[in-house]
Amino acid sequence: MFTSLFRKCLLTCxxxxxAAGNAAAAEYSLxxxxxxxxxxxxxxxxxxxxIKEMSNGRxxxxxxxxxxxxxxxxxxxxxxxxxxxxxxxxxxxxxEMKIGTLESGLPMSWMSALEAQIIYEHRGLREIIAKxxxxxxxxxxxxxxxxxxxxxxxxxxxxxxxLRKMKIRAVGAAAKMLTKLGVSCVNLPTEDIYMAFPPVxxxxxxxxxxxxxxxxxxxxxxxxxx
Length: 226
Description:
Layout: E1 2-7, E2 28-34, H1 42-54, E3 59-64, H2 75-81, E4 86-89, H3 100-103, H4 113-122, H5 125-135, E5 139-145, E6 150-153, H6 160-164, E7 167-169, H7 172-180, E8 184-186, H8 193-196, E9 206-209, H9 216-219, H10 221-224
Parallel strand pairs: 2-3, 2-4, 7-8, 7-9
Antiparallel strand pairs: 1-4, 1-5, 6-9
């Protein structure tokens, strides 16, 4: 599972974020929007802090979270038009990206993180993704990798037939695979998952999510999926 970091070709050079920052102190003040909600931006904050340190304070990036400036599906368009400077998203968010579902995950394509790294860095996947973002008018900076997906449900699931009775929030090629198996899937942005679960709403009764990068505890997903 990859998410993308990109920016518009302004002075130098698809899925990372915004920056405004302290204009008085920074020579370059950038806006970056992620599709993540506020409780999941710890990795992105480290990225922006590193950029500021490595540039000796010349570059400062302000982070905006999912839906704060634009909808997650409009991040790519907004970077292209210059409304925001950088964006972090997943390929399936962007209808203009023909390989979006592949970028968002290739179920059963590798058995380990090492195999995924080899395919991405040494078998041409990175170049394929970068060329597609170039066609979309932005520069691809690189991926954010996620852990294997787990299912969070309101009740135990012991068979595929039981899964078919549920509505699952799943994205990318994983959703395509589950749909082929007869499972009903809904495509929700990360910031909307909590509100989608009953008893808040009844949009979804299960979500497929990586346990490490998404930190279900910080998102309070366990409180509504148990």
